Structure formats: structure tokens, C-alpha cells
Amino acid sequence: MAGALESPSRDGLVTFLPHRLNRHPVVVRGLTADELWVCAGLSGAAGLVAGVPLAWLTHSIAMVPTLIVAGIGIGVFVGGGLLRRWKRGRPDTWLYRQLQWRLVLRYPALAAHAGGGQLITRSGWWSTRRLRPNPSLRRGTA
Description:
The protein has four helices and two strands; from the N terminus they run H-E-E-H-H-H. It is mainly alpha-helical.
């Protein structure tokens, strides 16, 4: 059994490395820990914004934390489902690059701070400069 793993042609190299070893683990509803914090933070902020006027109308300060907690619960449930659909079949860094790309296109002044110099934001027609077939490169002529 050990001889099959240590063949002389492999020179002691490891033949199996799991490609998912360095991925962030999924924590809740398809969200990684970073995505969960962002989703919970945005949902909590939305709950705070909705809770302050409602607390003023009902004369009950307890509305603010109640709507914050309810907003986080709804936001993680709905946001996790939406992000899971958007990320399905895409690379691990797709979401972060997509957010970075949208930020750079919508707010060019923030491009330097958001790492916009690393992205290709050119839109237009790309060419490989091979518009006509080269007859010397055809099969069987060499």
C-alpha cells in the first residue's frame, strides 16, 4: 500500500492537495463569516433607521432594539438566500471583485482607495490582431 503512494517517478511530491483548503467556511445560509457580518451590520442599521421614528411615534424606546434584532434576523435570512443565488457557480472572490468594480465605476474618485487600479474598466471592442487567417499556419503545410 505504501509503495503505491511513493513511486520513484513522483519524487516524493504530494499528489493530492485539497483545492478548498483555503476557502472561508460557510457559516449561515451560504454566507461566509465576512459576508455574515456585512449582512448583519447593514440589516441592523436598517432596523435602527426604521426603529427610531417608530419609537418616537409609539413613545416606546424598546422599539429600537426590537427592530434592530428583527432587521438582523430578516436581513440574514433574505440576504443569505439572495447572496447564495448570486454566488452559485462563481469563484470565491467574485462577490468582492463585483462590489469593488461597481464602486470604482460609480465613484471614480474612490478608485484609488478601493483598489481600482487593479481592475480592467475599459469597455469596447477587443481584438487579437488576427482578423485574416494566415495561410502559412494551416495544418499540413509544415
